[in-house]
Amino acid sequence: MPGPTSGRLNQGSVNRGDLGGLIDVDRGMVSREIFVSEAIYGQELERVFARVWLFLGHESQIPRPGDYLVSSMGEESVIVCRDVAGRIRVFLNSCRHRGMKVCRYDEGNTREFMCPYHGWSYGTDGALVGVPFAKDAYGAQLDRSRWGLIEVAQMKNYKGTIWATWDRAAPPFLEYLGDYTLYLDLLLDAWDGREGGTEVIGGDPQVAHPLQLEVSRRELLRRPLPWREPSVGGHGRHRSEREGPPGHGGAEPGALARRVVPEPRPLDDRLPPAT
């Protein structure tokens, strides 16, 4: 059955008249164009994702100074990190020099973020701390205080969950939530009534959970886990999500699987005794 409209929208801006033709309230029909239109998608990025409060992560994922994780706000990559003073910060993951991503790992711990393109480096507070050959290239013209990482307009740590928005004019987080605060509290508060207390527990569900796999668990233990390396650049202070914490030399491939996957037992051991 045809939708409310069969024509395609122009790739430019979308006016209200165009959108009205995509929805037929009387017939209960919505055009499939809303799922494929680049024009609508572009306006969603600009009018929704660039203005609303977005969930980025949880404070338990970055417990120590220097810890970070990479999240996203719309199509923008952002760094959620804890600076040397222990404060949670959120920055656009883009070098101020040529726009290259300064962090190319999913998570880790570092003292600074270094762009793999020309080596500009930034502290966990976002400040520009290193520019190779700065005197030869820029002389006294480069004011480093003006070229730190771009920080979000507003950030809120609500009971351990981290939220941010690019819009300085956006309402405060709790005002934005409104009546939905009740339902978020039901998710975040303890069952005994205490506020907060949630924590993100890491793990690899492919090996940490008893799944019905075609391959036997004993065979799985002999297979090394794949490494996830950045596609370009990076530097020694970051670590892959498969590596251990700093100072521990990382974990060899497959160590996680050998640590969390129990030895298989005969099926009869898991059945109750016959009565």
Task: Name the descriptors.
alpha+beta, 275 residues, Rieske Iron-sulfur Protein, flat
CATH topology of the largest domain: Rieske Iron-sulfur Protein
SSE pattern: HEEHHEEEEEEEEHEEHHHHH
Number of E strands: 12
| Basic shape | flat
CATH superfamily of the largest domain: Rieske [2Fe-2S] iron-sulphur domain
| CATH class wording of the largest domain | Mainly Beta
- Roughly what percent helix? 10-25%
Any idea what the CATH architecture of the largest domain is? 3-layer Sandwich
The DSSP helix count reads: 9
Q: Provide the domain count.
A: 3
Regarding quaternary structure, how should these chains be classified? single chain
If you average the pLDDT, what whole number results?
A: 78
Distance between the termini: 60 Å
Q: How is the topology of this model organized?
A:
Elements lengths: L15 H5 L2 E2 L4 E2 L2 H4 L1 H12 L4 E5 L8 E7 L2 E7 L5 E5 L14 E3 L2 E3 L6 E3 L4 E3 L3 H5 L15 E5 L2 E5 L7 H5 L3 H8 L16 H4 L8 H5 L33 H6 L15
Antiparallel strand pairs: 1-2, 3-12, 4-5, 4-7, 5-6, 8-9, 9-10, 11-12
Write up what this structure looks like.
This protein has 275 residues and is α+β, with helices and mostly antiparallel strands. It has 3 domains: 16-49, no CATH class; 54-188, 3-layer Sandwich (Rieske Iron-sulfur Protein), CATH 2.102.10; 202-265, no CATH class. The chain contains 9 helices and 12 strands. The strands form 4 sheets. It has a 4-stranded antiparallel beta sheet with strand order 6-5-4-7, with no helix packed on it. A 3-stranded antiparallel beta sheet has the order 3-12-11, with no helix packed on it. It starts with 15 loop residues before the first helix and ends in a 15-residue tail after the last helix. Residues 1-7, 204-223, 227-262 and 264-271 have low confidence and may be disordered.
